[in-house]
Design a protein that fits this description.
Order of helices and strands: EHEEHEHEEEHEHHEEEHHHE
Strand content: 15-25%
Largest sheet: 10 strands, mixed
Helix content: 25-40%
Radius of gyration: 18 Å
């Protein structure tokens, strides 16, 4: 009897330089033993936060369908155990992803779809408004796992999160849509020095909930690509632990924090300098240098059962 090979189809952005989207997600998944085939929703020179902008191309929905049709023609689509989606920039492309989910499920009913509904952060929406109802009404109901941040949760659920009670109410909204596992990757509920992460997994007859307080690192330095990294690590560890949510969350955060710590170690004064003294290129995640920490996460932070 041959061993099962976990194979992920990852549809999200690509940058030539730096680590966001597929550049942030693919390597960690491969390190953890997953085969990864990636379709790049965009190909940019660098992420959009650079002062001099970026150059590149955007894949449209027809091109996405064309690439996927080649996989179908060779019956390669039947090999996927997981689908991971991240940044998408236009409504028609997002609707084509819904078609792909349905096609993949037609050949593998146990396919796990992990959706990171990338729309914005810190109160700022950086995708077209038209994507919101498509995520809410068409994409989220297809997902097995969602990994939004607090702002994206508020957008999707129309619930203003001012307390943990609000957060759990919003999480339940996703369960009512049919999502089995909800991971709120970050929220600001715990104050200025730390983040809160919430995870809820609905099994056949019970719901398992966990929360974790995560100290902020880096003296206010903001990193790009951490949400993409969180989604890929969460996909991997939920599978490797057979959906043990405590272990999944603790391992995911352990590796994520280790990558941030490694990145800080390459910055001026080991990241203790004023955030304005660090340029955008210096803040790129040191994912390759964190290979060992991704393979063998050292658990420091523990989550609590709710």
């Amino acid at each position: 009897m041959s061993a099962v090979i976990n194979r992920v189809l990852s549809i999200q952005s690509h940058v030539v330089h730096g680590y966001v989207g597929n550049k942030s997600a693919v390597f960690p998944l491969q390190v953890l033993g997953f085969e990864v085939d990636n379709i790049n929703s965009v190909q940019f020179s660098n992420h959009t936060g650079y002062a001099q902008g970026f150059k590149g191309q955007i894949l449209n929905e027809h091109e996405l369908a064309d690439v996927f049709s080649g996989l179908v023609a060779n019956n390669l689509h039947s090999l996927y155990t997981h689908l991971l989606t991240g940044y998408v920039g236009n409504p028609a492309f997002l609707r084509e992803i819904a078609n792909i989910v349905k096609k993949l499920r037609s050949t593998n009913s146990s396919l796990i779809y992990v959706c990171d509904p990338v729309m914005g952060d810190d109160g700022v929406m950086y995708v077209p408004n038209e994507l919101l109802p498509i995520y809410r009404d068409e994409i989220v109901p297809l997902a097995d796992i969602v990994t939004p941040n607090q702002f994206e949760v508020e957008l999707l659920t129309n619930i203003s999160i001012k307390s943990e009670q609000d957060a759990w109410k919003a999480v339940e909204w996703f369960h009512e849509k049919g999502v089995k596992t909800v991971a709120v990757s970050s929220s600001e509920l715990s104050g200025s020095d730390s983040l809160l992460t919430f995870v809820s997994h609905k099994a056949s007859s019970s719901t398992h909930r966990y929360r974790m307080v995560i100290p902020k690192k880096g003296n206010g330095i903001r990193f790009t690509g951490t949400g993409d990294l969180f989604a890929s690590l969460f996909l991997a560890h939920s599978t490797l632990t057979n959906f043990d949510m405590r272990a999944t969350l603790e391992r995911t955060i352990a590796s994520l924090q280790a990558v941030i710590t490694k990145t800080l170690s390459f910055l001026p004064d080991n990241g203790t300098a004023d955030q304005h003294a660090v340029n955008t290129a210096q803040r790129e995640l040191k994912i390759i240098q964190s290979k060992r920490e991704i393979e063998e996460p050292s658990i420091v932070l523990r989550c609590t059962n709710v």
